[in-house]
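Quick review question:
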């Protein structure tokens, strides 16, 4: 198994944190956009776009979850 240092684990966790902060901003902007829609037929495309983008965020969250689990395992190996 590839050996990893504590500093590398911390750096990877910091990147996960930055990505989570970016997703929080995206979700907030989608919430603002969602509240501004008037739900006419034209706005249905906007709702679909919001749904697609939220699904993409869900995929990114799954990747972060996997990365954090992997880093947690590596931390356990270091101790």
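Suggested answer, residue by residue:
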């Amino acid at each position: 198994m590839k050996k990893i240092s504590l500093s590398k684990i911390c750096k990877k966790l910091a990147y996960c944190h930055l990505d989570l902060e970016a997703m929080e901003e995206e979700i907030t902007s989608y919430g603002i956009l969602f509240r501004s829609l008037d739900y006419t037929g034209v706005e249905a495309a906007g709702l679909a776009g919001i749904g697609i983008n939220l699904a993409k965020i869900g995929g990114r969250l799954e990747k972060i979850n996997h990365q954090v689990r992997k880093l947690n395992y590596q931390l356990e190996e270091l101790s």
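Why it works: The mean pLDDT is 84. The chain has two helices and no strands.
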